[in-house]
């Protein structure tokens, strides 16, 4: 088993070293060894429904109609949410949605915009 990190872009296990970088033959993504070490130290990486890593301040788009618990409101498909904040827990995105207010979303129902 290789001790090289998986690709942060596509999660491929077939990464290889290329000088001071790691490279992925499947998607062509390259990243520095320093960035890989920082990611390993951070631990949990939250990804959207398509496997793209998310970070604080990103904008995301909702990919499924979501009913708001305790209300008759619905967050519609295609709703763009700006300036998200990542948190630990089942619902791992804290955000503010226009017309609804502050709420938490699961990363499996959004894609990075």
UniProtKB/TrEMBL annotation:
Gene Ontology terms, MF aspect: hydrolase activity
Superkingdom field: Bacteria
Matching Pfam families: YjdM, Zn_Ribbon_YjdM
Transmembrane segments: none
Alphabetically ordered keywords of this record: Hydrolase
Keyword field contains Hydrolase: yes
Cross-referenced InterPro entries: YjdM (IPR004624), YjdM_C (IPR013988), YjdM_N (IPR013987)
Domain Protein YjdM C-terminal: 46-113
UniProt record similarity statement: Belongs to the YjdM family.
Protein's recorded name: Phosphonoacetate hydrolase
Organism per entry: Methylogaea oryzae
């Amino acid at each position: 088993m290789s001790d090289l990190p998986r690709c942060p872009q596509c999660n491929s296990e077939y990464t290889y070293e290329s000088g001071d970088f790691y490279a992925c033959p499947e998607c062509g993504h390259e990243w520095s060894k320093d960035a890989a070490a920082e990611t390993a130290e951070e631990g949990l990486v939250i990804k959207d429904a398509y496997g793209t890593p998310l970070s604080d301040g990103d904008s995301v788009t909702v990919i499924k109609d979501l009913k708001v618990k305790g209300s008759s409101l619905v967050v519609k498909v295609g709703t763009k949410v700006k300036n998200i904040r990542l948190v630990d827990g089942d619902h791992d995105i804290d955000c503010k949605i226009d017309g609804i207010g502050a709420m938490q979303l699961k990363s499996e129902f959004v894609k990075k915009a």
